[in-house]
Amino acid sequence: MITNVRYKNLPTVVLAGRPNVGKSTLFNRLLRKRRAITDPTPGVTRDPVEADCLIEGKPLRLIDTGGFKLVDLESIDKLVVEKTLETIKKSDLVVLLLEAGDITSEDEELIDRLRPYRKKLIVTVNKTEGGRMQADSWNVMQFGFDKVFMISAEHGDNIGELQQEILKRLDFSKVEEDTEEQAIRIALLGKPNTGKSTLSNRLTGANASIVTDIPGTTRDTVEGRFKWKSKNFVILDTAGIRRKAKVTENIEYYSVNRAIKTINDADIIVLMIDAEEGLSDQDKKIAALAHDKGRGIILALNKWDMMPQEKYTFKNAEDRIHFQFGQMEYAPIIPVSAKDGTGVDKILNTAVKMYGQLNTHIGTSQLNQALERWLQENPPPSGPRTRFKVKYAVQKSANPVHFIFFTSRTRAVSDSYISYIKNKIRKDLGFSLIPVILEIKDSTGSK
Fold this sequence. Notes:
The chain has 447 residues and is of the alpha/beta class. The chain has helices at 23-31, 75-90, 105-113, 134-137, 159-169, 196-204, 250-265, 281-292, 313-325, 344-358, 364-377, 415-429, and strands at 7-8, 12-17, 49-55, 58-64, 93-99, 121-126, 148-150, 176-177, 184-190, 222-228, 231-237, 268-274, 296-302, 333-335, 390-397, 402-407, 437-442. The protein has a six-stranded mixed beta sheet with strand order 3-4-2-5-6-7, with helices on both faces. It has a six-stranded mixed beta sheet with strand order 10-11-9-12-13-14, sandwiched between helices. Helix 8 (281-292) links the parallel strand 12 and strand 13. Helix 11 packs across helix 12. The longest helix has 16 residues, at 75-90.
């Protein structure tokens, strides 16, 4: 996986095949990390899942697609197939995965569907570890393929040979190091069916995420990129987060955990709230996680076009949220309609301002001059048990914004005084839109 250097104009490699043939396992194997959800249940992957990948120092874009289900199709299956075909059409190379054993009628139909892309096809038969069922698997040659790779995505058999073939078939001449400004990473979080994928598709100007009325349609985190007013953005569309009591399937368990981990990968969290349903306990937990991590938080009241368009409708909704969130009055609340685009520009404008605050670093001299004023305006308590002195302060980091205040008696510093200092930091130092992490240490350096 590429971590330090970013590239552009990457050649794209798509993994395609029937459900449950091991595409996501191969995806994770080539990335050398667990990125796509793997589960024995057919049809786990629905949206294409993308990641930058290094093979022997060569960068490429790897895409795991939803399984080609060609029999007993439900509405969601048809959408998955359409999305997969669309992704294949745009790709530079397609790795077709078949399963070890006899060729099925569904395999035959899939091969026929991929006939227009034959020149960019690499055919592999998966799950052949230790020579398992290879004799039967060679039957795939009857379809006129010149070469077939027998691999095991799970155990790593012959993966090196497959990687060599991928490198041989790709053109890396247009690949360049990406020196553009770092992208603002926005994660869309919230309950299922609150409009996350609709907003993601609107922002990216593409249909990267499958949108249906079925709760839980998105399972993996789907990454999209776009530019707005010369700023680069990465959007992370996540699986809807339900209460633990309602998370019964293994697939959904991994989806929810991955969505929560996405908070670590984002700069800003857009919490999608159904305006008609209002704020839920689960929304509060997501916001609290983002707050504790020091991420920027935008509360998006989606489906606002369905609300009564009366004078005090938004003010009343805003007041309810502020009452329920307590100490998170800094978080902007924006009414939006992901469906028709209302409020989307305001989200992006707010995200740009928020990103600027997240990456602001205050010099130690400026910080301590401000601290002196704050202590004069509201001196610490002077009682024998409550007395303490604030010696000095430093900013430990930006994004997240983290300050350390050194005091004479850490245990004497009350929560109310910490809140006072946080509010002063936000108001006087330009952090009005974001959470601030404040750490108290004694003057010897221990907490």
